[in-house]
Amino acid sequence: MKAATTWILVADGGQAFVIERTSAANPLQRIKNFEFKGPRKKSRDIGTDKPGRVFRGAKSVARAAVGDDKKLAREAEEKFLISVLDRLEEALKHSTFKRLILTAPPRVLGALRKHLTPPLAKVLWGEIRADLVKADLDEIAAHIADMKRG
User: Fold this and answer.
1) For 28-31, which contacts have Cβ atoms below 8 Å and span 24 or more sequence positions?
2) What does each C-alpha distance from 120 to 46, 92, 133, 150 come to in angstroms?
3) How many CB atoms lie within 10 A of CB 142?
4) Quick check: 109 and 85 in contact, CB under 8 A?
5) How far is 15 from 81, CA to CA, in rounded Å?
6) How far apart are CA 109 and CA 101, in angstroms?
7) What is the pLDDT tens value at each position of the chain, 150 positions in all?
8) How far is Cα 21 from Cα 5, in angstroms, rounded to an integer?
9) pTM, to two decimals
10) b/e string for 79-108 if b means 16 or more Cβ within 10 A?
């Protein structure tokens, strides 16, 4: 019986790549056409203007900025993650892989989970809550081995 091909999405808010494992005996391999670079800008670089300012109180001359300074960056990050998931779903339609593992920091993992389509959710095999974007393949393999034991 042929082993199910597993894809491991390794992501953070600004970059992502996919690693493939065809069997437990074969080493992990990065898939060249599935390397993504997303936005690495802060909200102040994305927005067109400075945030609005208000007086702190009726008798005060002190002023404070209004608005969430991380909102625009998080929105750009979320669009990036959705585009990555779209590419994965397209590959799944072509039966390129049978199982999916998500690897990302907790906040990014939550955003990925939120946007998983039903077909991707159906093949989701596990999650690793760690930032492994800069890790080598051996370190990622060790996390996968720990996941299976846990």
Assistant:
1) 28/137, 28/140, 28/141, 29/137, 30/137, 31/7
2) 31, 8, 21, 23
3) 12
4) no
5) 9
6) 11
7) 467 899 999 999 889 999 999 987 888 999 999 999 987 655 555 555 555 555 555 565 555 555 555 777 788 899 999 999 999 999 999 999 999 999 999 999 999 999 999 999 999 999 999 999 999 999 999 999 888 654
8) 6
9) 0.80
10) ebbeebbeebeebbeeeebeebbbbbeeeb
Longest CA–CA separation in the chain, Å: 77
Q: Which of 115, 91, 113 is nearest to 104 (CA)?
A: 113
In the block, residue with structure tokens 């370190």: 139
Distance CA 126, CA 128 (A): 7
The 3-state secondary structure of the chain reads CCCCCEEEEEECCCEEEEEEECCCCCCCEEEEEEEEECCCCCHHHHCCCCCCEEECCCCCCCEEECCCCCHHHHHHHHHHHHHHHHHHHHHHHCCCCCEEEEEECHHHHHHHHHCCCHHHHHHEEEEEECCCCCCCHHHHHHHHHHHHHC
Q: What is the Cα–Cα distance from 75 to 38, expressed in whole angstroms?
A: 12
